[in-house]
Specification:
The chain is an alpha/beta fold and about 260 residues long. It has 2 domains: about 5-200, 2-enoyl-CoA Hydratase, Chain A, domain 1; about 205-250, Lyase 2-enoyl-coa Hydratase, Chain  A, domain 2 (Orthogonal Bundle), CATH 1.10.12. Helix content is about 45%, strand content about 15%. It has 11 helices and 10 strands. It has helices at about 30-45, 70, 80-95, 110-120, 145-155, 155-165, 170-175, 190-200, 205-215, 220-235, 240-250, and strands at about 5-10, 15-20, 50-55, 60-65, 100-105, 105-110, 120-125, 130, 165-170, 180. The strands form 2 sheets. The chain has a 6-stranded mixed sheet with strand order 1-2-3-5-7-10. Strands 4-6-8-9 form a 4-stranded mixed sheet. A hairpin with a 2-residue loop joins strand 1 and strand 2. The longest helix is centred in the N-terminal third of the chain and has 16 residues, at about 30-45. It is globular.
Length: about 260
């Protein structure tokens, strides 16, 4: 993994992943996407990591979009590896068993908004901007924007944003349910870290299963989703974490979860 393009830093129980192309407003080229997936996979595999934050270097942009200079000469065949790299990176965030926060300062446009959508939560500053302007370039969103955005804010609002390519501010993003929390830029990372510190005190296997069931079950018929939840609930009773959590509750002490 290229630390020059995507850096990892441990902050207690949290891994901070920073996309590091500030001169290009952290635009996503294929190398960045591959490095991002590798970083997420490393965080997912590390049992000491209880949460992940993704952010962009420089403060002007989380990610201002995919790298148009790399895409301009693509055709239908040559664009496929790039699209696959985007698909794989976004899925790595979505499938990561740890909670993932997109800490958005500045622009989250195109592939940047799609990356934020693949995370569990979006924390943003009052000055942040969001949009899917791909139609202005003659293409559609390609890293999940048509699907994740519609599931999050509804089909018609997703159509509005994607068809028009318009950029929205944080106030509107909160109103439509896109952004979860708004904090000043100098408090963005500390707020995200504080949230994940709280989550780190919970049973990590339980958090991972809750994320999986919510993500996989939401689009199923209710009965199937409830069956999935029941299986996850019962399965956790075979874990050491369940024994520790309930014994700690009964003995009035803080649990010491091991993720086992």
């Amino acid at each position: 993994m290229s630390q020059e393009l995507v850096s990892l830093e441990k902050r207690g129980p949290t891994t901070l992943i920073t996309i590091n192309r500030p001169k290009a407003l952290n635009a996503l080229n294929q190398n960045v996407l591959v490095a991002l997936k590798e970083a997420l996979d490393l965080a997912d595999a590390d049992p000491s990591v209880r949460g992940v934050i993704i952010t962009g270097a420089g403060g002007r942009a989380f990610v201002a979009g995919a790298d148009i200079a790399e895409m301009v000469d693509f055709d239908g065949v040559s664009s496929e590896p790039f699209a696959q790299a985007g698909f794989d990176a976004m899925r790595a965030a979505e499938l990561c068993r740890k909670p993932v926060i997109a800490a958005v300062s500045g622009f989250a446009l195109g592939g940047g908004m799609e990356l934020a959508l693949a995370c569990d939560f979006i924390f943003a500053t009052p000055e942040s901007k969001f949009g899917q302007p791909e139609v202005k370039l003659g293409v559609t969103p390609g890293f999940g924007g048509t699907q994740r955005l519609a599931r999050l804010v509804g089909r018609n609002k997703a159509k509005d944003l994607i068809f028009s390519g318009r950029i929205i501010d944080t106030e509107e993003a909160v109103k439509i349910g896109l952004v979860d929390r708004v904090v000043h830029a100098d408090e963005l990372l500390s707020t995200a870290l504080g949230y994940l510190d709280d989550v780190a005190r919970m049973g990590p296997m339980a958090v991972a299963e809750a994320k999986r069931v919510i993500n996989d079950g939401t689009d199923l018929p209710l009965k199937e989703g409830l069956e999935m939840e029941k299986e996850a609930f019962c399965g956790l009773f075979d874990s050491a974490d369940q024994k520790e959590g309930m014994q700690a509750f009964l003995t009035k002490r803080a649990p010491d979860f091991k993720g086992k």
